[in-house]
Design a protein that fits this description.
This protein is 47% helix and 23% strand. By secondary structure, it is an alpha+beta fold. A hairpin with a 4-residue loop joins strand 8 and strand 9.
Length: 230
């Protein structure tokens, strides 16, 4: 009897496998996954646009019920990331002609996309921080940095004061040296950045010893100690 049962089960399993292959359509599954991902992205981008409207409508002298922003490029959010804690940067454009510029928006998610965390953005830098950013650009031009990137860090508040703008303005760059005088030069820049309160990460390398150092808001003392030790 047992043998007979096994004899019946094997053909049944084979038939079931064949039928499952008939019903499985990889193109339909891929389309379904794409549609779900787009729906998730729309949930986030809609929320971002609402937050931007509420935050900046008064500043721009506009009705908050009017759609002022288009969030058009969510750069994170693959399937495995959506339901984990994380940040979701995007690009957005203000619809007002005088503010037709791109900028970064970040959203700090809680356990899933239905429970949003703190909303932060860097649009304040466009409204109030261009002059401070230009000052920093001119400062670093006097030094032989490469791969320079300067941008405002997202903030929950609308930052307007010059000192706070500096504290939220980030500069990244690379610097290579081979003489003590060149080390003095980068230390001079680091001192100026710290004195003015800018956020910085300068990747410094000693070409003579194949030694490098990179960390946020280093001091000149830390840099000298690292490169002058044996």
């Amino acid at each position: 009897m047992e043998r007979f049962k096994r004899f019946l089960i094997c053909p049944l399993l084979a038939v079931m496998l064949m039928l499952s292959g008939c019903f499985y359509d990889p193109d339909k599954l891929e389309a379904k996954n794409r549609a779900e991902l787009e729906e998730r992205k729309k949930t986030v981008t809609d929320y971002m646009e609402t937050c931007l409207n509420e935050k900046y409508a008064d500043v721009l002298g506009e009705d908050p019920s009017k759609k002022l922003f288009d969030v058009y490029d969510l750069s994170k959010g693959q399937n495995q990331a959506w339901f984990n804690r994380g940040t979701y940067p995007a690009k957005a454009k203000c619809r007002l002609d005088e503010y037709e510029v791109e900028f970064s928006v970040e959203i700090y998610m809680e356990s899933n996309i239905k429970s949003f965390g703190t909303f932060k953005d860097s649009f304040y830098g466009i409204l109030y921080g261009e002059e401070v950013k230009q000052d920093l650009e001119e400062l670093v031009l006097d030094y032989s940095l490469t791969d320079i990137d300067i941008y405002y860090l997202p903030n929950e508040k609308i930052v307007t004061e010059e000192a706070e703008l500096r504290e939220n303005l980030y500069v990244f760059g690379k610097y290579s040296f081979s003489t003590p005088e060149e080390l003095d030069t980068i230390c001079e820049l680091i001192d100026k950045l710290n004195e003015l309160g800018y956020v910085h990460r300068i990747a410094i390398s000693d070409e003579t010893k194949s030694r490098g150092r990179s960390s946020n808001n280093s001091t000149s003392e830390e840099i000298r100690e690292f490169f002058e030790r044996d």
